[in-house]
Amino acid sequence: MNKTLEGQVAVVTGGGSGIGRAAALRLAELGAKICLLDRVEETNDKVQDRIQENGGEAIAVEADVSDPASVENGIRQAGERWGRIDIVFANAGINGTWTPIEDLSPEDWDQTLSINLRGTFLTVKYAIPYLKRQGGSIIVTSSVNGTRIFSNTGASAYSSSKAGQVAFAKMAALELAPHRIRVNAICPGAIRTNIGKNTNRTPEAEEAKIPVLFPEGSMPLQDGPGSPEQVAELVSFLASPQSSLITGSVIYIDGAESLLI
Ligand code: NAD
């Protein structure tokens, strides 16, 4: 195995499940040391154990990405332990509550925005001082929902948070370019993870559904959703020197799902 990320340190938020888990395992395979930040301690610890069993180095820190002190603490642990941070995968997110706007409570709106968008801001903010030392790569997980308004009716808070992440990533790419820090947003289509299980989708959102040209969760390229491992390959490419000229980009990984909208 070519250890292209040997000696590098990566912070992965939402590393306990789905896309974050797959990316953490892949980055570790390529030689990076991994700091896993997730609010679910049990699954986060399991990913840490798996990386260590495979001969890699990892720490699992219980953290809520919407809480500044929690994020700062997690990132400091990585920085102090290994003396550097090169890669940040700002990925933790929730679907939250999907319901028509008139029924969406301000509290539910705030919860989605504070985990998905504020969480991305906080993760990047506290990592910058470490990244500035030698340069690095930040990858933000947005969604096809962030740029194309999708068939997921009721997802106004989710889509707004995902669109905000795209704007934030572009702004950060410009601001951080002089420090040799690249920032890109990825927009997955339907990926087989645990996120759907935790969606609070109301019957009203279900009823308001817009007809789609292909079955939900499917893609023009294939029947059924993509895998977290497919997304992890893109993340590790964007983390690596092979993508040295790519910054400020918004990259779809959706089997052409978004082209049909
Ligand atoms: P997932 O539910 O499998 O994993 C998300 C992880 O984030 C979980 O481990 C969860 O505990 C963690 N998390 C949630 N809130 C947190 C918080 N406040 N602090 C710390 N950790 C928190 O879901 P996933 O599909 O792997 O989602 C990862 C990202 O991918 C999300 O940003 C999501 O919006 C995005 N995304 C997913 C899909 C998809 O179809 N699965 C499509 C497009 C975008």
TrEMBL record:
The keyword Methyltransferase does not apply. SUPFAM superfamilies: NAD(P)-binding Rossmann-fold domains. Pfam families: adh_short_C2. It comes from the Bacteria. The keyword Hydrolase does not apply. One of its GO terms (biological process) is bile acid metabolic process. Keywords: Oxidoreductase. One of its GO terms (molecular function) is oxidoreductase activity. InterPro entries: NAD(P)-bd_dom_sf, SDR_fam. Belongs to the short-chain dehydrogenases/reductases (SDR) family. This is SDR family oxidoreductase. It comes from Cohnella nanjingensis.
